[in-house]
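Sanity check. The docking grid for glutamine depends on where the pocket ends up, so I'm generating a full predicted complex first rather than guessing from homology. Inputs follow.
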Amino acid sequence: AYLDRIAAEDEVLGAYLHVDAEAALARAGEIDAARAAGEELGPLAGLPVALKDVFVTEGVPTTSGSRILEGWRPPYDATVAARLKDAGTVLLGKTNMDEFAMGSSTENSAYRPARNPWDTDRIPGGSSGGSSAAVAGSLAPWALGTDTGGSIRQPAAVTGLVGHKPTYGSVSRYGLIAFSSSLDQAGPMARTVLDAAVLHEAIGGHDPRDSTSIDAAMPVLTEAARRGAEGDLSGLRVGVVRELGGEGHTDGYEPGVLARVAETVALLESMGAEVREVSCPSFDLALPAYYLIAPSEASSNLARFDGMRFGLRVGDDGTRSVDEVMALTREAGFGPEVKRRIILGTYALSAGYYDAYYGQAQKVRTLISRDFTAAFDDVDVLVSPTTPTVAFPLGARVDDPLAMYAADLCTLPASLAGLPAISVPVGLSEGLPVGFQVMAPALADDRCYRVAAAVE
Ligand code: GLN
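Predicted complex below; grid placement will be based on this.
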């Protein structure tokens, strides 16, 4: 049924970069046969899933949305892909994304933009916009995305889905094509909080192949989602972050978004939560700090795309040096936003500027973490809008990087602090979905699921 939906709708939605219907049907057939033979099956046996094209998948084309990896078939599976395979899922395909996960609209995909199923003239968010378009358009029941500065939560918010960025280090990054290694985190995108929890539990947990993987037990997320759905939040202390759409900080926020968020906060209160306003002054600096740190790490991570090891190679005609081939390959293979980030990052890391830019941004990152720590002395979760606006029209921000970056205002603080944060749909503004963000202390992902399930 999902393959039929893809055949009918994906030309317009642009949700997928790669679909192999034959392979998916063959795999589903194998699982059916195993079931018929009475073999023991994984917990998600036969369930289709879509993976953002940032995850390497054995033998399945993986591009990270870039021309520089066109045609590359990785020789191994990312840990999360392997875990989903072991659980018995059927891979529907690889979803569209902003090139190397840099963007908020999927318009930076080197292949084609993805579109929002609610209004195909609007963006489905990014960078995991193929995943959000696929799930919101019923071209997949659920999908994995990655979130470096908001790329799971923002696309989920603007397409009416649930999207969770796990605690940094709680889901393996092994086989996730790196954008900004200290921020990147994989997570679930689904239609319900419980679905997201099920998918998250299937991919999470310690992985010795990821040196930043946390070796700690995961909270039981499905249990938290079920408990939250009962609608009793007695005793839960909720902090509404002033700097994210509160008084004096409403510039750039749509009134319709703020109204849905205010209603949701009132709903939490009616369920027994104790609500108070919390100030996190350093959050105002999250955007500039992120746009120094993420490009710095990207400039280093993307050095591996040199025309020698992977994918595209340009100008290798026997007359040119390795350096020339490398330069020609990168010139042809990277799109404008990726080049912008590499230049920004290389500059921020360069001798003489390192302390002023990268070093300063790292200090701001520490201040943001301290704001969270102080806030979590008084409250159990922090809440805010997920994005300042509903889905904007395609093309509206492509020529204005700063306007595009502003889509991440609310999601960046949790990213920089490595904390878990979920986006849950809380109604519409002007006919388009609004997302509500719930942030929690490290490894308290269950609180995000509990509160999200309560308001869902
Ligand atoms: N929009 C942000 C950026 O362009 C975040 C992207 C992401 O989370 N991958 O960097």
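Relevant for the grid: Residues 245 and 251 are 8 Å apart (CA to CA).
Also worth noting: The chain is about 40% helix and 15% strand.
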